[in-house]
Write a structure and sequence with these properties.
The chain is about 45% helix and about 15% strand.
Length: about 575
């Protein structure tokens, strides 16, 4: 599956063209292609073989030709042309958050900076702030960006890791017939970022399974290949390890390699007090093995209910399992709809009708179309007139639809003074209003908190989107008093969004557990910009489960009738 490779190449072409000061239209076309291809759930190689590249939203003939060239030859002449003459260190610098192309060009020309090390040294010595248009604050932001960049080199987004692992597992099932094969480690616990990827399988034909693993087409380098363990490097310098264990130890090994470290230490201490020993091979009383084929063997032997992987962080889950009071975590089948979706009315790639069809395939009862408001001009935000027209079109579509409803909505900007981008007369016409901050990220905590509170006090606002504003590896959360926001949410009945877009996931598991304890209702929104991205609900669900959320804690689990009663209550 070369989706990620191609997406990264298009993103890099866009970066270099911007650095060179070339046509803005071309730059945006490459960025859009990168975004769409990177989030495709379908293998782009299959689309190519079936001559369906032009079916990808936002992919025209020019982009399709470049994809075809790469898939057929392993090279993309446009990529080679774009990076020609640009030093490798400069290209790497383009990944630094907060370092735009104009700034990069300036530090290169004025200070001769060509790599990350040189940039960090110059910023640490205060040599950037004296440049035109820089200043001390921007220099500090660049240093923060360097730190985020370095951290990102060590961790993989779940949005990259999970599709990769699914591809590997599906391939091995087809090639070897292996039945028991699961991701382990932090990926199985659905953490938002992953270190090295661990996969566990069972079978007596370990050598055959490992051989198939190290021979996969996605392999760039083989680090190890033995009877029971293989280690490979795939695109992006990502390491993936596969272990094969005996069937009667699979549960114990899965529990052991899932972690977390603190969770496992706690379990082993409990076992020791009971005269038992837990290892990756099973649970033992003396030399006698008393279980290990399934995970439940480990937990039941020490008097615990089985603990879902997402909870295994030693944050009270073991105590709850001992008291039989673990939460009944929300499941994918509980989700009835998505509240944050963009169409081609703003910066999305597909029509409302195309989005609805995917929502129908997912079994949803409803889907909210929440295009940007007018202040977000870069995203083709809707004016009052265009939003009114969209509302009318959605109303007409709903008359024709069976089994699913479209909610006419908007992702409305919270302006710097706390007011909203549309007047209340227009907001009143919408089924759902999702309010969000898109500017003024660097304001102080009191100012940003007051802006959000002001929006929540508006009677027509139903959800606060991506409330902390974090972008993984590229933007830190803005200063927000999250406890205050939760307190006001309870008072106003406003739901707080778990943004499921893998680059965001800005409301984390700790926030969710706090919100649950305070009685806040949550809403998962994918922030999808094409229909395939609706499937990112899985990532938001992972955060919700890690935060101990149950069906009752999310408004996505309401039936259409229940939801409309809630939305119309205010």
């Amino acid at each position: 599956m070369k989706n990620l490779e191609i997406a990264q190449m298009f993103e890099r072409i866009a970066d270099v063209l911007e650095f060179k000061g070339e046509n803005r239209f071309k730059i945006n076309a490459y960025r859009k292609a990168s975004r769409v291809i990177g989030s495709l759930s379908e293998d782009i190689e299959h689309l190519h073989k079936e001559n369906r590249l032009m079916d990808i939203p936002g992919v025209g003939s020019g982009i399709a030709e470049k994809i075809t060239e790469y898939l057929d030859t392993g090279k993309m002449s446009k990529y080679e042309e774009a990076i020609k003459g640009v030093e490798a260190g400069l290209i790497k610098l383009m990944d630094i958050p907060g370092l735009g192309p104009s700034t990069l060009k300036m530090v290169y020309k004025e200070l001769g900076i060509k790599d990350v090390e040189g940039l960090e040294k110059a910023a640490s010595e205060g040599r950037l702030q004296v440049l035109k248009g820089m200043g001390e604050k921007k220099e500090e932001n660049i240093l923060r960006g360097i730190r985020l960049f370095k951290e990102s080199q060590q961790r993989i987004s779940i949005g990259k890791a999970l599709p990769l692992v699914k591809e590997i597992i599906n391939s091995l099932k087809k090639k070897t017939g292996v039945k028991e094969i699961e991701p382990a480690g932090s990926l199985r616990r659905m953490k938002e970022t992953i270190g090295d990827i661990d996969i566990l399988a069972s079978g007596s034909n370990g050598k055959e399974i490992i051989s198939a693993f190290v021979s996969l087409p996605i392999v760039k380098d083989v680090l190890a290949s033995g009877e029971t363990k293989g280690s490979i490097i795939v695109e992006g310098n990502i390491q993936v390890d596969l272990r094969v264990v005996e069937k009667d130890s699979f549960g114990a090994a899965l529990q052991y390699f899932t972690g977390s470290k603190l969770h496992n230490i706690h379990l082993r201490e409990m076992a020791k007090r009971l005269g038992l020993k837990i290892s990756e091979y099973g649970i033992f009383r003396g030399d006698k093995k008393i279980g290990g084929e399934i995970e439940e063997d480990i937990y039941s032997a020490i008097g615990l209910d089985w603990i879902p992987p997402e909870l295994r962080e030693d944050r009270g889950e073991i105590e709850a399992a001992g008291k039989k009071s673990l939460p009944n975590l929300v499941r994918v089948e509980d989700i009835k709809g998505d509240f944050h979706v963009h169409s081609n009315w703003s910066d999305g790639a597909e029509s409302v009708e195309e989005i609805v069809e995917m929502a129908r395939e997912l079994g949803y009862q409803y889907i909210a179309i929440t295009d940007h408001s007018k202040s977000t001009k870069i995203a083709n935000g809707l004016t009052e007139e265009r939003l009114s027209k969209q509302i009318k079109e959605i109303r007409e579509l709903n008359k024709k639809l069976r089994g699913i409803k479209i909610l006419a909505g908007s992702e409305v900007d919270i302006k710097t003074d706390g007011t909203l981008d549309f007047p209340e007369e227009l907001l009143k016409e919408l089924d759902i209003v999702v309010a969000a901050i898109h500017i003024g990220f660097k304001e102080d905590e009191e100012t940003i908190t007051n802006r959000v509170v002001s929006a929540m006090e508006n009677p027509y606002v139903n959800i606060i989107a991506h409330p902390t504003g974090r972008l993984i590896s590229s933007r830190e959360p803005y200063k927000l008093n999250i406890k205050k926001i939760f307190e006001v949410a309870v008072e106003t009945g406003t739901a707080i969004e778990i943004n499921a877009f893998y680059d965001r996931l800005d409301l984390n598991d700790v926030h969710c557990k706090m919100a649950k304890g305070m009685g806040v209702k949550m809403a998962i929104g994918t922030d999808a910009h094409n229909s395939s991205q609706l499937q990112m609900m899985e990532y938001g669900l992972g955060v919700a489960r890690r935060g101990w959320l149950e069906k009752r804690d999310l408004i996505n689990t309401m039936s259409y009738k229940e939801l409309m009663e809630r939305l119309n209550r205010r």
